[in-house]
Automatic annotation (TrEMBL):
SMART domains: Mob1_phocein. Keywords: Metal-binding, Zinc. This is Uncharacterized protein. Pfam families: Mob1_phocein. Coiled coil: none annotated. Zn(2+) binds at H99, H104. It comes from Dendroctonus ponderosae (Mountain pine beetle).
Amino acid sequence: MKMAEGTTILRRNRPGTKAKDFCRWPDEPLEKMESTLVIPQYIQQLIRKDPSNIDSILKIPENYEQGVWKYEHLRVSIKATSVDKLGSVCRRVYRIFSHAYFHHRQIFDEFENETHLCKRFTQFVTIYNLMSKDNLIVPILEEDSTPGESEA
């Protein structure tokens, strides 16, 4: 990305960058991103902009295939022979969320209020049928669909 004066904005954090200055470059539309890592950069940009806007983060942009979009969220390349094992991997990751929720609730709530990671992961695995809904025991999606109900 170039600025009006002709200087180039490097979209990366240099060694020694303070935490408060991480990722402080301006947002860039997906169509203008030029990189081999366009999709992960775009997803990260959406998360930094508003981590609670999960629908926007998980929405497939025009001209992108569902399979490409789905697997880019994982930030790793996956062999075709390994795709069948994704459900098992997702269940294992989800166990971390459920453990944190049921055994470290205060920490879970603080982290979830800031990052919305469990909710994003839960919606992701639900949209792409990577896990059975029977295995989704953290009531993260129910909170939105049943306003006004208490936990008691």
